[in-house]
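OP here, attaching both records as promised.
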Amino acid sequence: VARLSGPRLANEIFALMKERRPQEAIRRLRRLRLLRFVHPRLALGKRNERLMAVLPKAMRWWERRCPKAPLDRAMLRVMTLLAYAAPATICGAIQRLQLSAAQARTLECAGEQSSNAAALLSSQAAVPPSVVYRKLVALPNEALVLVLAKSLISPRRAGSARFSRRLNRFVTRDRHVTARINGDGLKQLGLRPGPHFKTILDQLLDERLDGRISAAAQERERACALVKHYG
């Protein structure tokens, strides 16, 4: 690995993460000090190992609820290497590995984004489904599994049932919800094209997620009111 760089280094790292016992691969990389070729500041600790250890449980949870949404397991394991790294370290690793745009977007979620999502889902405060949706909707599947894995090793397990309930609702229901009225519908209601389109559509979706809108007639009535307000 020490002589590799760019795509060849990425291929080697991903191949190691496909092994049956990737935790041993991580220990080997650390022992041989080869992770410095991914990034000089990349240092693995006990949290990374614990995260890798709970990944099978998190992946089984996902597969039971989302059997038609496969995971890139190697990418998920690579994400555990950078799960507690600073944004600059993650950015540097992406550049060194010369990942594709899609891989880069996924790996970018490994650090603060997934940690912040885990904190929101565990929050004792009342969190509307629309807020959970906005926090999670842009995360790839692998990042959602990493969010779950981070919660499993969190010392604050008092909110585990709340966390599971919120995440389960998002992955099985809310991320598939759409507003019945679209841009063409807003045009028919008299709204001229502009930035208010997204504002209104987002608000309609949020109100549907939060249960303030349920029937089609309610949504149309609310859309008319918003068009009048913004138009």
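Record two, same layout:
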Amino acid sequence: TFTYTNFSCYVSRAFLVIKTNRINQKYLTGLLNSKLVVFWLKNKGKMQGSNFQIDKEPLLNIPIHKPTNELQELIGKLVDYIIKIKSSNSKINEYTTNNSLSLMFEEVIDAIIYQLYFDDLPDDLKVIELVEQSVSEARMIISVEEQINLLFADWNDYNSKLRNRIILQKIQNPDIATIEKYLSNESN
């Protein structure tokens, strides 16, 4: 698990701290927690049994894609939503759990990361434009909780283009299907 903090903190030597001005750190948090990086670490990183051995060497070898600043900010905004959801002491949405909300935003980040790394995706599997449009519309609402609820309602709808493209990514792209199947089998 990778986390973002925006305050001074002290951690034990068991933790690695990444501090950089070269890339948006919230984007980096979303990327490093993505299924693609989990898959990469399981296959190219070091393992201690079923746990990752996260030290400097495997971290430095992760292929970091640096998208435009706008796309880094978009993923950073999704990470902000996840942080808000996970740090909330009360339910943000009366119809679902905060965990379900968080998982949806994580799934959207995964879909964006897949599009970044598998740039040959056909248009009907691309999600970035849809996410940009939805988040842009949601940001017009003042309350972050209301933004989260609006996005959840939009993306969770049965007819949502974004939801359906995410599902199709996992089925139609052989690389993404392999990653999803592998991680699904690992968690069972």
